[in-house]
Each structure stands twice: as C-alpha cells, then as structure tokens.
C-alpha cells in the first residue's frame, strides 16, 4: 500500500513540476503515473550500475556527478515515454533536483501521518 501511495505522490509531483517548469510536459495524470513507475524502475535497476561505473569521477567531484546521473535517468525516461517530454539536459537536471526536493517533502508528510 505504501508503494502505491508513493507512486501516486511522485505522479502528483511530476504533474506539479510540469505545470511550473518550462520545458517539461506531461500528457496527463495517467502519463505521470507511468513516468513515476518508469523512474522508479530506472532508479532501481540502472542507477546502481551507473554509480558503480562512474565511481572514480563521483569521488573526484565529491558526489556532484550523481546529479548528472539523475539528469540522465530523467532523459532516459523521456526517451521511453511518449507522453513525457523534457527539452534538454539542463531542464532535466533542474527537474531532477526539484522532483527530489518535492518527493522528500511529500514523503515526510506521509511519514508524519503514519506516526
């Protein structure tokens, strides 16, 4: 149940960011749910592999290269999805940062309701 709620919260965050961030477009709420699922799968499967492969540059940049990895995952989700469009790398980077921030706020509200 918690996974479904988190997916729905991520979909809401994607919709909100698409409304306010120029260069990001989502076709509808169904597309946002699919984007949330695709991002979750990419973060589960591909992100650990990319982190291991880029470990030297991640250490050299003190972890800032992880932002680039997150932006690349957003761009990959854009390629996999038909109803989700991101205009470029810098937009994907900003979308990634704002999505992470919004998810942490929404998830913290979910955890407060649980306690």
Automatic annotation (TrEMBL):
Entry superkingdom: Bacteria
The record's section on Pfam families has: Phage_holin_4_2 (PF04020)
**Which UniProt key words apply to this protein?**
Membrane, Transmembrane, Transmembrane helix
Q: Which InterPro entries does the record match to this protein? A: Phage_holin_4_2
**Which residues are listed as membrane-spanning?**
28-46, 53-77, 89-110
Q: Which residues form a coiled coil?
A: none
The protein in question is named Putative membrane protein
């Amino acid at each position: 149940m918690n996974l479904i709620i988190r997916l729905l919260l991520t979909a809401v965050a994607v919709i909100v960011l698409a409304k306010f961030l120029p260069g990001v477009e989502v076709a509808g709420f169904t597309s946002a749910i699919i984007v949330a699922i695709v991002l979750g799968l990419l973060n589960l499967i591909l992100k650990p592999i990319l982190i291991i492969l880029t470990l030297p540059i991640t250490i050299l940049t003190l972890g800032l290269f992880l932002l680039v990895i997150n932006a690349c995952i957003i761009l990959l989700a854009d390629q996999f999805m038909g109803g989700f469009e991101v205009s470029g790398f810098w937009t994907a980077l900003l979308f990634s940062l704002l999505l992470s921030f919004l998810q942490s706020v929404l998830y913290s509200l979910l955890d407060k309701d649980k306690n």
